[in-house]
Amino acid sequence: MTRAVLSLGSNLGDRLAHLRTAVRHFDDVCQAVSGVYETPPWGDTEQPAYLNAVLIAAHPAMTARDWLTRARGAEQAAGRVRDPARRYGPRTLDVDVIAVFEDTGEPVVGDDPELTLPHPRAHLRAFVLRPWIDVEPYARLPGHGWLTDLLNAEPLAGDVRNLRPCPDLRLESD
Description:
- There is one protein chain.
- The chain has 174 residues and is an alpha+beta fold.
- It has one domain (2-165): 7,8-Dihydro-6-hydroxymethylpterin-pyrophosphokinase HPPK (Alpha-Beta Plaits).
- Helix content is 26%, strand content 27%.
- It is globular and about 40 Å long.
């Protein structure tokens, strides 16, 4: 069994509908979905605000590469078009594999150019770590420590203030 932490984000079109598309795409393996947060864009600030969430999924036969394939399938279902000129540009749906854990609880670690685990920038992204705490309050990011410690220290402590919880937006699948 592997368990995956997936970050969901959308800032084009019907953002909530795109996040719901992702949840439906993982419905058969979904264990938990965080609340939704509206967040400023990261890395490329000339674009609309994002809606972000985290989904925890598990499956007895999925590998880390399988999670990436599934994530890309969800993006495709939401009409994602990658623009190589804007790495952090706007998108209908972004699904990042943040961390994968074996059934023993051991993290999967890898430095494949297509899938580095844990995600190499997750420790710098409040829009990933804050929703993750919603579903796993005592989680640790492999190689970086407790999520709460990361969020309470700079540079993320300042970023957390820019996240707006959206309790009226729900992602549960149908």
